[in-house]
Amino acid sequence: MKKSKSLLLLFALVLVIGTVLAGCGGGNNAATNTGNAEGNTPAATDGSASGEKLAADQTLKINLSAEPPTFDPALAQDSQANTVLKTMYEGLTRMNDETGQAEQGIAEKWDVSADGLVYTFHLRDAKWSNGDPVTSGDFVRAWKRVLDPAAAEAAPYAYQLYYLKNAQEYYDKKITDFNQVGVKAVDDKTLEVTLAAPTPYFLGLLSFYTYYPVHKSVEGNAKWATNKDTMVVNGPFTLTEWTTGQTLQVTKNENYWDKDSIKLSKIDFSLVNSSATELSAYESGQLDYAGAPNGEIPTEQLPIVQQKYPDEFQRKGIASVYYYEFNVTEKPFNNVKIRKALAMTIDRQILIDKVTLGGQLPAFGYVPPGIAGADGEYRTAIKDSYFTEDDAQAKTLLAEGLQEEGLTKLPAFTLSYNTSEGHKKIALAIADMWKNALGIDVKLENQEWATFIENRQHQNFQVARAGWTADYNDPMTFLDMWVTKGGNNDTGYANPEYDKLIADAKATDDLAVRQEKFAAAEKMIIQDDMILIPIYYYTNNTLIKPYLKGITHDFSGAVDLTHAYLLEH
Known about the structure:
This is Oligopeptide transport system substrate-binding protein. InterPro entries: Peptide/Ni-bd (IPR030678), SBP_5 (IPR039424), SBP_5_dom (IPR000914). Belongs to the bacterial solute-binding protein 5 family. It is built from 16 helices and 21 strands. By secondary structure, the chain is α+β, with helices and mostly antiparallel strands. It folds into three domains: 53-88 and 235-312 and 545-568, D-Maltodextrin-Binding Protein, domain 2, CATH 3.40.190.10; 90-222, Alpha-Beta Complex (Dipeptide-binding Protein, domain 1), CATH 3.90.76; 318-539, Roll (Dipeptide-binding Protein, domain 3), CATH 3.10.105. The chain is globular, with a radius of gyration of 23 Å.
């Protein structure tokens, strides 16, 4: 079908994430436009227009509340990794968070065939941090790693490459020759990509970390991403210090092709999993930035800091959702009535007003506000009214579900969450609601981030907290993760009817048809099957020093630090 101008304009809004996991999971809260060759370069950073002057020390100090589990772009899946990887790598395109458009990255220009299936990228003269040229083969190598069906550790975002011709067939071992996959190095500076179907937001996807290139030195070195000395990167910064569990430091990469647009000399990341400590460090001047998406301000302090620092506190609604997910493969959570009973007995507004205190919005669907639909926002057209809070109906559903499972009472179960004072408070409040409404006993289990992610991936849980941040501006980024055996489908959910809805949405560029498929899919996972409990749509609450400029957040709340700079203060 011929693409309309409105279709291209709509998908020009595509943006990359990258926590809450995953897209991405978060540790806490965590077109054919060729763009502008100068990228996101901030204006007048030398103060020439405003009279302000750059600080002599251009070291940005920020906290990560959890250590990124990996720096391998093929294995990354959370916002902590996304934030750091974005400083160290660059894809064929990069996203301009202010315009919402894909622009030139390592590709300085590209051509698209009339049918929208073949993209030919022409690479600029760019170098790796060791001085080697960045070539088209580096992208082929990286994408082959992601799609490797025999990889020791499966890439969670392999499905993001299924847009390539034969990519899914290769991953599913239906074909064994990678040369049949739609990516080809024509020569060192030319990369040809063939898609399985027209994908209007493909240019935006290319700025996502799963599509980053990797250097040839990764071959034969399974542990290359665990040592700063073996990480050869192509982005604005290189990893120069890494003390596990304590600090990370990235330093300006003098071999980066666009180094003149980078004002920071270093970014120091502390690794402190205490919101109180993070706030204290910000107030004492040890941090220039505090809060989401990579850190956390204590929930009880949000009203206070909002009044205390009116010029530094920022709150923004973002396209992210906080939820609890079930392991639907094990009793008793294989029973949908039991799952629905738990979802219906959470008082979301009370939780927001009394516990989170962050101005979030109650969620009764999965796709958050801010995501583009067929005409305007998806959430405006498709209301999130898939269920209601109703203790009486929940009791009836629970009784029916228990009877179906041959139980007289729901056994005590474990609710898992990753280390965070905020997650703990939410879990305590919800466990109390379940106890009061349904007489259920819940055991709370706190886990460190890396362990928590691993347990979820292997379905080693009963009920677990989760969050998802948009990887690009389309409902697909929220809905294709629940297909059977999807890399980020931790619930074990498998429904052929759901899989077909997603496949049908991917096979058409008709916006109305896509939205119809998305609405049916969302209804299936929430109203019909309730594989997860939507709790709230996120807001980002941050504190930013007045002298810190150039930081950008995209519509999903993901932060880009690469073009930040510090003024004299």
